Amino acid sequence: MKDKSEIRVKFEIGDIKFEAEGSADLVERERSIFNNTLLPAAVDAIVRTRGVAQNMPYIDVPNLQQPALEATATTLLPEKIVENSVVDWSRTSLASFVKSKGANAHYDFIICAVYFNEKRNGVSSFSSATLKDLYSEAKKPLPNNLSMSLSELVKKGLIMEDISAKGSTPKMYVLTSDGEELIKNMRPTAVKEKKTASKPRKQRVKEKSIYADIDCNKLNLSAYPSIKSLKDFKEKMVLVLYIITNENKGEWFSTDDVLCLLTDIFGESATKDQVNGVFKREKLWFKTEKVDGKFVKRKLLNQGMDFAVSLISK
User: Fold this and answer.
1) What is the rounded distance in angstroms from the CA atom of residue 107 to the CA atom of residue 175?
2) What pLDDT digit, counting tens, does each position of 198-252 carry?
3) Which value, to the nearest 10 degrees, does the dihedral of the CA atoms of residues 42, 48, 50, 53 take?
4) Is 199:186 a contact under the CB 8 Å cutoff?
5) Is 250 within 8 Å of 233 (Cβ atoms)?
6) Lowest mean pLDDT among 5-9, 21-25, 260-264
7) Contacts for 78 with CB less than 8 Å, ≥ 6 apart
8) How far apart are CA 142 and CA 156, in angstroms?
């Protein structure tokens, strides 16, 4: 028993015969290829072999009366006349057309692919099955949910359900005029050329710390524990800041200032991460202030001072 989802088409134009049987999509595609490619070649061959006048009027295939289908399933859709175009569709692949439009996005590919199929094969209607074939032709992976993609394109107004095939399974769609207009205006994104030679990066001049010229001999260091005798970095750092503050050499310190004091003045090893780590962990020990809206400076508060005094009293 014949599958109800299959249809059969058979017609003759003089000595030229066409017959196809299968699903609606398959029959429609075969008929379109026959009408657009094989039929004109067959007519030309008959003209040459039979000596018919060369100015014989060309048969306008879309106006021919199509025979009734031998099934009650899907009715074949009317075929659009292929518009004149500078594009030689017979020599253009789907992949090259999509690339020429810059259709890298998922939705852009779908509408470009069905537009290409309409222009090359004369098939205006398409379904999810049609799209699967087009994805395969372009060697692109299928999206996770093709039906959802079609629904989104309907919402965007770029495709619509084919009225002449309403109720068919699978559902048939056609491009809207907005969809066609979008494709015609699509252009690949211009790729910026990389500069072969770039300007040398401007080296940032490190500002000299205001504590760079401090003389240790004038700091009364005999009144304090030796910095080198302390093992913990936090203890060394806080005691150095306390000494500078207590000896009235300054009270505000940036990260670079602390590094300068520890490494250049007291000869201790230190990194920015270590300094900023103490500032971050012991927030209550320091008052923070921005100078000129950019450089953060800090000074010891009572809790920080008390910690330094505890080190001296040990």
Assistant:
1) 13
2) 666 666 556 788 888 888 888 888 889 888 888 899 999 999 999 999 888 888 8
3) 110
4) no
5) no
6) 5-9
7) 62, 164
8) 21
User: Residue 160: how many CB atoms within 10 A of its CB?
Assistant: 15
CA nearest to 4, candidates 18, 24, 19 = 24
Q: Which of 63, 92, 85, 76 is nearest to 180 (CA)?
A: 85
What is the amino acid identity at position 131?
L
Predicted model pTM: 0.37
Cβ atoms of 288 and 296 closer than 8 Å: yes
